[in-house]
Every structure is written in C-alpha cells, then in structure tokens.
Design brief:
Layout (H helix, E strand, L loop, with lengths): L5 E8 L2 E12 L2 E2 L4 E3 L4 H7 L3 E3 L3 H4 L4 H6 L3 E8 L5 E9 L7 H40 L3 E6 L6 E4 L3 H5 L3 H4 L16 H14 L3 E8 L5 E12 L5 E10 L1 H14 L10 H14 L6 E7 L2 H8 L1 H22 L4 E6 L2 E6 L6 H13 L5 E3 L2 E3 L3 E7 L6 H17 L4 E3 L2 H22 L4 E9 L5 E12 L3 E3 L1 H11 L2 H22 L6 E4 L2 H4 L4 H9 L7 E6 H4 L3 H13 L3 E7 L6 H7 L3 E4 L1 H6 L4 H17 L2 E4 L5 H10 L3 E2 L10 H9 L2
Helix pairs in contact: 10-11, 14-15
Length: 689
C-alpha cells in the first residue's frame, strides 16, 4: 500500500525492555530472518518512548550507532508503537525507505491502524502461549505428585472427568477405566464401611463452603485394601449449585499402620497387654460424647500389699502375678459381661467399666464380690503361693460429668476405703460432701497460711506445789470467716498432707518470738515458752540456722523446743545432730507425749533432753488402774534419776493433780488449771503484777 522498502514488526518484553525481538521483517521484496537488536541508539527507542517517530530523511546520519539501520542504508523512517486496549506497549511497527519520503498524516494513521491490529493478534498469541504453558506446568505438577488429582461430578458415582497420572499407583486402574465410569465408577472403590463417613465429611464441608479432609479405605484393582487421605472442595455453578468436586488424594496406608502401632503402644499396658489409663479415659470420653449421661459403673480394684510382694519375692514375681490377674479377669469378664471394659491403670490397680451393673449399690456389691472371689484361693507364682487381698471402690456415671471425673470419684472412694480399712467403698453424696469440705478447708487454710492469718494461744504450765506459772505451751489456732473455728487436728493434718507443716511451724515461732520480745520490754519476769517442732522441720539440715535466725536477739532461755517422742525417733541420727547444735546455742529440749513412742533410755541420754512431758493418756488412766499409775511413777522415777524436769499433760481433775504431786511430778498443764487462751488473756492473768 505504501510501496515501502522495508517493514518490521518487533516485540518488547517487560523482563528485557532494552532489546527488541523481530517478529516479522520484510526487506528487498521478501521476508528476512528474524532476530533481535538493541533499542539503545535506534529510532525504535524513540517510538517506544513516544506515540510515533518520523524521519523524512537523514535517519542513518541521525543514528550512526544503529548497526542494523546502517546495514539497510535507509534514508527515511516512520514508526508507531503497538498498544493493547489498556495502553500497554507490546512492541512497534516501523517502515523504512531507501530514499527521502514525505510521510503524511494519512500514512501515520494507516500505520496506527495496522499497529493496533498487530497488537491485538500479539496479545492473543501471548495469552494462548501463557495458557498452554500454565496447562503444561499444571499437568507436569499433577503427574509428579505422589498421589492423584481429580475433577469429578457431584453425583452418586463420583463420575470422574479428569485424573492425573497417579491414578494407577493409587487405585490400580488406568484413567481410561475410571473416566466417565467406562469400566468402573470411583465410588465403587470406596470401602462400604467408610462411605457414610466420607459422605458426612463432604456434606459438612459443602455446608460451610470449605475444604473437606478425610481418611478412608479403598479397594484397589488387585483387591488390596488401602488407606487414602483426600482433600477436596465443591465447585459451584453460576446459580450456586455444587456441580463438581476438585481435589487430591494419596495413599497413606503405611503412615496409617504406623499411627495404629503408635496408638497401640500409647494406649496399651506393656506388661499385661490390657488398655492403660489413657485408653480408659479415651473409652470413657467416647461414651460421654455418644450420650450426655451414660449409664456406667466404674470399679477400681487395688491389690493390697503388692509392694511387699515385689520386695519379698522380686519384681519378676510381681510382674508374673499381674499378668495372671489380668488373664483371670479377662477370662471371667468374657463369661458374664462381655461388654465390660478392663484396664490396668497403675502398678497395682485394675479398672472394670460395666453397663450391666450400673443400677446402684447392689450391683456394685455383686460385681465387687464376683471379682474378688476369683482370687479367694492363693495364686501359684514361681513356686510361691500368694494370697491376695483387694480393696474395691466404685463410682456411677450418673454422678460424674466426664470420664476423668468418674475415675477421680472412684479414686476418692478408694482413698476413703484405705483410710478407714474398708473392703468396699462407693462414691456417694455423703462422700462427695466430705471431699468438698476437705477441699474447701485445704484451699482456705493455704490462703490463711499465705496471708499469715493463723493466731497463737498459750496454755500455762503450773508448778504443782506452789501453783505458780512456770511456763507456757504455744498452741496454733485458726478461725476462718466461712468455716468458723477449725480444730488444730484438722488443719495440722492438712498442713502435713500439703507439705507445708514446716512453714506453719516457722510462722508460729515468728509470732511467738514477737510476743516474747514485746513482753520482755514491759515485764521483768516472763516465763519460758514451749514451741512444738514437727518431724518435717527436724528433717531439714537448715533447721538450726533458721531457728536461730528467727529467734534473733532473744535469750535462748526464752524458748523451749517440744518434739514428740515418735517424731524424734524417725531419724535418730539426724535428730541427735540437730539437738546437739541447738543445745550448743543454749536452747532446752522437751520430749512431748513421752511414753507413747519407742525411745530407749540410751537415746534419752544421747539427746541430752531437759524435760519429759507425760502423755495425757497416762494421766487420765492412772486414777483408774494401778498399772497406769505404776507406769507414771516409773517415768517420774526415771526422770528424777536422769535429772529431768517432768510436766504432766491433760490434767482435768483435782484428783489427777494431787496424785501427780504425790508421785513427785513437778509441773502440769490442762483444763484443771487453765484452757489455752489468747496472748492478751495470758498477759492479764499471769504476767501482770
């Protein structure tokens, strides 16, 4: 149309903007070989930087560094960019002539039309090539994955429309056999027992418009059953209906079997093969998930004295015994309660969970009797005849909100059975209230201890001859806003059980020292005060240093340490070392509850004690029988021989006081003289002149 000598269509890419790639080049009356050239220093560079570039003459002289232009020897040049509809520059269209030309606006308009058509063609080519490359990459990726990608219809057969090459490795079928259900539908490969679970997972995912993930079994072409993992999502049509599913699945048989083996190890007792504690809790959790109020009886069997069996006959004998017990329990349960669940949860504890014996206490007693009668006769183990004794507790699921709570209730009932020497015990309302009270008492006591809310009272120790106060024993008291006055036996037992008895003792000592220090600043004569020291405090190597630190500048004669005879004999060597150091600091030592323990005369001499406190039980009994009176007299004679002071505890009558005085006892304390009183009352009654 323009009788041009040279026509060139060039393409430019974003990743290489300084170089043009020739798509088509017409020169010398024919098409030339395509190639590429640098845009820098060429008229084509000007085209891409503006809407057009026109040189009617002298183009070679204007661009001396353009080798391609110099080779052509063209004199005139006109070029326009190839633009998409969005204005993106894809390249350029240029016309060159060997002679000078006067390019009119019509020529420019014609070139722009041609460039626009070329740009449309080029954009379509790029899109097509990009789509083909994407499809190629997707197919390569799908075929490289260790599994099967698919697209199927949302129908009962899961009619497959597309599958990746991995279909054969997963199913054993070629894609041609499954596509459009040619020979078999994919739905027919799904294991019948797993189809409902798979359908449920898909329904839930469709309802929430999310991906579904599910494990299930398929039956391969060779008949082998394999586990697969599948993830997929529904594809909606324009009207919102799920018409297809797209997803991916892979064979996970080996991983599944490994997980099963791990689960077997994690939920199985290695010694007996029975389910273990986690397996029991897992079973109970499923029962509670299936119904909010399952009807179950949980029976806990505890082998009494099992540790002694291990110590006496060896661990191998103990292990064999446990296996025998497990086998006998299994065999018996299969006879009369096949649905019962049997587990071993600790070294010497077995659990039976039954739905057939859950009506009430009568059912529990029947089942407990049946199980314990299995072991009425001795069991032969390694030439030993072992006679077993069981304690049995029970709990009913109607009183528990979860499996763990049900097991805890049975454990609480077992603790109650052990504490009260019961053969059988069930968790009921009364026990629940008792446990609840103990729990509340424990929580409030620990809070009171932390806040130092406990107080001290004092009970005077009286000279039986002069009736003067020669000393006092400090007694801890606790009044709670909710619980009222809590007996010392109760909160001391809590402190011992919670391991805070030493802290309780130190707090009492601190309050006592502060009290004595205050009194000594106001009174000339302050009698010595006795403070009880528990066995847990005596067991600490730092006990003496802590005791001395708390007493501070108080004279050692102000404090007397009281420790019970039984506590002193728990570890005589440790006690001897502690008392020796305390004596070096000048503190006196009194043995409390003397006569109830098992200390010897030799130990009394070694401990270098100062005071013997005769136990209240002997004081009460001595006026009733001669034997107790003789025992008290023996203690008093022994103490006098050793040069020890004697204090009788629990004197409640004048007859007891007079008899003790007659026998030679020096001091006494008890309700006959005074009950424990507050520091203010003690000060008013015994310290004021």
């Amino acid at each position: 149309m323009l009788s041009a000598d040279h026509v060139m269509v060039s393409e430019v890419f974003d990743h290489d903007p300084k170089r043009a790639h020739i798509i088509s080049f017409f020169s010398g009356g024919c098409h030339q070989t395509s190639g590429s050239y640098d845009l820098q220093g060429s008229p084509c560079e000007s085209v891409l930087n503006s809407d057009s570039c026109i040189f009617n003459e002298g183009v070679c002289q204007s661009f001396p560094d353009d080798e391609m232009l110099q080779t052509l020897g063209a004199e005139s040049y006109i070029g326009v960019p190839m633009l998409t509809v969005e204005g993106t520059k894809l390249g350029l269209l240029a016309i060159l002539n060997d002679a000078p030309m006067q390019y009119s606006t019509d020529v420019l308009a014609l070139l722009q039309v041609a460039a626009s058509q070329a740009a449309a063609e080029l954009a379509q080519m790029r899109f097509t090539n990009h789509l083909k490359e994407s499809q190629r990459q997707l197919l390569t990726l799908m075929d490289s994955l260790p599994g099967m990608a698919y697209r199927c219809k949302n129908d009962r057969c899961w009619t497959m429309e597309m599958m990746s090459r991995g279909v054969y490795e997963v199913t054993g079928y070629q894609s041609e056999q499954l596509l459009n259900n040619n020979e078999i539908a994919y739905a027919d490969l799904i294991h019948p027992q797993d189809r409902d679970e798979l359908d449920r997972a898909i329904r839930l995912a469709v309802a929430s418009d999310s991906y579904f993930q599910v494990n299930y079994r398929i039956i391969r072409a060779d008949g082998a059953v394999r586990w697969v993992w599948e993830q997929g999502k529904g594809v909606r049509s324009d009207n919102g209906d799920i018409t297809h599913f797209e997803g991916f699945l892979r064979d996970i048989t080996e991983q599944h079997l490994q997980q099963q083996r791990i689960a077997e190890i994690a939920f199985s007792d290695e010694l007996t093969g029975l389910p273990n504690r986690p397996a029991l809790l897992n079973f109970l959790q499923r029962e509670y998930e299936q119904t909010s109020a399952p009807d179950l009886l949980l029976v806990l069997l505890d082998i009494r004295g099992f540790r002694a069996i291990n110590q006496r006959f060896g661990l191998q004998t103990g292990d064999t015994l446990l296996r025998v017990i497990a086998r006998q329990l299994q065999a018996e349960l299969r006879k009369f309660d096949q649905s019962a669940f049997l587990a071993r949860i600790t070294g010497n504890e077995f659990v039976v969970v039954s739905a057939n014996y859950s009506a009430g206490i009568g059912d529990f007693l029947q089942l407990a009797d049946h199980l314990t009668q299995l072991f009425a006769d001795p069991i032969a183990v390694h030439d030993h005849q072992l006679l077993l004794n069981f304690k049995v507790s029970g709990a009913f699921s109607k009183t528990a909100q979860s499996g763990s709570e049900l097991l805890q209730q049975a454990s609480i009932a077992m603790y109650e059975a052990k504490q009260n020497e019961l053969s059988y015990c069930t968790f009921d309302t009364d026990l629940e209230q008792k446990v609840s009270l103990e729990r509340r008492q424990t929580e409030r006591f620990l809070r009171a201890l932390q806040n130092q809310e406990l107080t001290v009272h004092l009970q005077p120790q009286i000279d039986l001859n002069s009736k003067q106060c020669l000393g006092a024993e400090v007694l801890c008291r606790w009044f709670d806003d909710e619980l009222g006055t809590v007996p010392p036996d109760t909160f001391i037992a809590i402190a011992r059980k919670q391991g805070v008895l030493p802290e309780l003792g130190w707090q009492v000592l601190k309050k006592t020292c502060a009290l004595i220090e205050d009194w000594q600043t106001r009174y000339q004569q302050v009698p010595p005060v006795s403070v009880n020291v528990g066995a847990q405090q005596f067991a600490s190597a730092d006990m003496v240093d802590e005791f001395v630190r708390i007493c501070g500048d108080l004279p050692a004669s102000s404090i007397i340490l009281e420790i019970t005879e039984s506590d002193l004999m728990i570890d005589p060597r440790q006690a001897l070392a502690v008392t020796k150091r305390l004596r070096e600091y000048g503190f006196e030592l009194a043995i409390d509850d003397f006569g109830t323990g098992y200390s010897s005369l030799a130990y009394l001499q070694l401990f270098d004690v100062d005071i013997l406190k005769i136990d209240i039980s002997f004081v009460h009994a001595m006026t009733l029988d001669e034997q107790s009176k003789t025992l008290v007299n023996t203690i008093l004679v022994m103490a006098k021989t050793l040069g020890l002071t004697t204090i009788a505890e629990g004197i409640e009558t004048e007859e007891q006081a007079m008899l003790l005085q007659k026998l030679g006892c020096e001091q006494g304390q008890g309700f006959y003289f005074a009950r424990p009183m507050s520091p203010e009352e003690f000060e008013k009654q015994w310290l004021h002149p």
